[in-house]
Amino acid sequence: MGSGDESEYMTTSPPAVRVARLSKSYGDVDAVADISFDILPGETFALLGPNGAGKSSTIEILEGYRDRSEGDVTVLGEDPQHGDLDWKARIGIVLQSSGESGNATVAEQLRHFAGLYPNPRTVEEVIAAVGLEAKAKTRINKLSGGQQRRVDVALGIIGRPELLFLDEPTTGFDPEARHQFWDLIRSLKADGTTILLTTHNLDEAAELSDRAGIIVGGKLIDIGTIGELGGPDARVPLVRWRDAAGVQHEKRTDAPARLVADLAAAAGGEPADLQVLRPSLEDIYLSLVRRHAADSATDALNTEVHA
Amino acid sequence: MSATQSTRPGTVQPGRPRVPRHGILRLGLSRIGFEIRLYFRSTDTVFFTFLFPFIMLGIFTAAFSAQGNIGTNPDGSGGISVGAYYLPGMLAAGMLLSGLQNLAIDIAGEKGDGTLKRLGGTPLSPLSYFIGKIGQVLVTGTVQAVLLLIVARFAFDIALPTEPEKWLTFVWVFLLGVITCAFLGIALSALPRSGRSASAVVIPIVLVLQFISGVYLQFNALPEWMQNIAGLFPLKWMAQGMRAVFLPDNFAAQEQNGAWELDLVLLALLIWLVVGLVGSRLTFRWIRKDT
Fold first, then answer.
1. The Cα angle at residue A173 between residues A168 and A178, in degrees rounded to 5
2. Is the pLDDT of residue A97 over 80?
3. Which residues in B lie closer than 8 A to residue A190 (C-beta atoms)?
4. C-beta atoms of B20 and A116 within 8 A
């Protein structure tokens, strides 16, 4: 307890989450292989990757639900494998899915969970933050899937966690609910909450996270700020147009304006179907994942040849 | 959450006030209220656990009342009504259902639907969770027993004992039996592979026990080997203890050894209480790691 108070007077604080050379295998299957990353206090970090890539295994190890096979993990200064109740009081968990029978109403469930924490947010505040004011007295099993998901999020934040785990939090949300959720996460960030997020929605990751790591096949293939992922090459704009003969062309260039000007001059007017595209996070993510899949396929082929 | 000022990642946050956690007992007590509320909202539980002994007592009374009293003298005098004869068995069944059947199915369901996983991520001690469950069983089991006695007395006109020492026996047999069943239920909840299969696993066990332990069938009419098997399980002893309270003393002659044997009732229930405690302690997990 004492060590946490000292950080107030220090200029840099230790990472909220430290993962060093983490591996996790189930029998012969390596779900997570040699992953390392840190999450700073107050930072929002996204773990991205295809289904089955090892995101949930990683996050469940950090939450204390699973034991690691190898490596070192520290979460809020403690090993989650031995996290005690005081440690659990400082984290909030939104699991990937929940199918609770939900005979309690939204307000009852939140009031009960608020009572488990030493310094909870108020029930009214949290219900408002997830936009369920009209459903406060409705039993959870009578809510739609998206509304139940919002209850999950509400239960994750009711204890005023220092560190919040969000495993695919917006599954089943309509666009309006998703934007409302983003606002909620921004206000949690403003409060200083550290957040670890997994999502398949790349817009969401770009919107919310300071940094992201991409996991494919249990390996961390890239990590950085949203603006750095994939390296500078991945961000070179693409110009696409159709020539007079109707053939489509595309060209990657760091100087798209000059290319467009040249094209316009050559065509003597507007080039047909002209587009200047800046790769979105989704484009960069997909190219990274595909490149990795191609690499590992080649590796596998080489191994087979040598074997 | 009203703050709009943004903090830069990596910079020092203002220290959060550390408030001490609530005690295990306080959280356990808050669980009891929550558990009882959810118990009465579950239609399955209310019907198959809470109301079942009432229904069975009604059926037995209606079905067999034409056959006259049980334990009558050769001249046809004396004896007690069928309802009065089955009341102790129904009370014992209620204890088994409220404790063992209820918790085994309830906890297996909470394991299956993710409730336990979620609770495991909160600062709730498993002990507080146990206090909540045991408290739920004690409260619902007591309400059930009291209502059963009221229904027996006023709806079926069954005479209840007046001697204080009989009621003292009732209290300890009931409390010890219910708590033992509750812990056995927690331990048994580890057996079903999924929440959905819980009823299918637990109900046959409970049903067979009730048939061989003198709940639905007159215990003295069962073959000796079946009585001996029943003697290995707690329900037989709970039913025997309840018979000692509610049946006339001359019925003791019908027991396996011709006596109520309350000392053996106490011993058997204490042994099963230890089995339940150890079993709960060894098998209970918020989640099965790595499955």
1. 85
2. no
3. 3-7
4. no
Position A3 scores a pLDDT of 44
Among B8, B13, B31, B129, the residue to mutate for chain A (most A Cβ within 10 A): B13
Give the number of A-B residue pairs with CB atoms closer than 8 Å: 139
pLDDT digits (tens, 9 = 90+) for A38-71: 999 999 999 999 988 899 999 999 999 999 999 9
**Inter-residue contact A72 to A18 (CB < 8 Å):** yes
User: Which amino acid is residue A201, in one-letter code?
Assistant: N
Rounded to whole angstroms, what are the CA distances from A106 to A81, A95, A149?
31, 17, 12
Beta-carbon contacts of B67 under 8 Å, excluding residues fewer than 6 positions away, are: B82
Task: Note whether A232 and A222 are within 8 A (CB).
Answer: no
Residue type, B204: P
Domain boundaries, chain B: 24-65+84-283
- The more confidently predicted of residues A99 and B228 is B228
Domains of chain A: 14-224 (3.40.50.300), 232-306 (no CATH)
* Tokens read off for A223: 């990590």
Q: Are residues B212 and B229 in contact, defined by beta-carbon separation less than 8 angstroms?
A: yes
C-alpha torsion sign, points A82, A84, A86, A91: positive
Assess contact for B96 and B238: CB atoms under 8 A: yes
Are the C-beta atoms of residues A204 and A282 closer than 8 Å to each other? no
Three-class DSSP labels, chain A: CHHHHHHHHCCCCCCCEEEEEEEEEECCEEEEEEEEEEECCCCEEEEECCCCCCHHHHHHHHHCCCCCCEEEEEECCECHHHCCHHHHCCEEEECCCCCCCCCCEHHHHHHHHHCCCCCCCCHHHHHHHCCCHHHCCCEHHHCCHHHHHHHHHHHHHCCCCCEEEEECCCCCCCHHHHHHHHHHHHHHHHCCCEEEEECCCHHHHHHHCCEEEEEECCEEEEEEECCCCCCHHHHCCEEEEECCCCCEEEEECCCHHHHHHHHHHHHCCCCEEEEEECCCHHHHHHHHHHHHHHHHHHHHHHHHHHC
* CA separation, residue A92 to residues A89, A105, A157, B167 (Å): 8, 21, 6, 49
- Answer whether B123 sits within 8 Å of A118, measured CB to CB: yes
User: How many helices, marked H, and strands, marked E, lie in chain B?
Assistant: 12, 0
For residue B225, the SS3 value is: helix
What mean pLDDT comes out for the span B19-31?
A: 90
Residue A214 contacts residue A289 (beta carbons within 8 Å): yes
What is the rounded end-to-end Cα distance, in angstroms, of chain B? 37
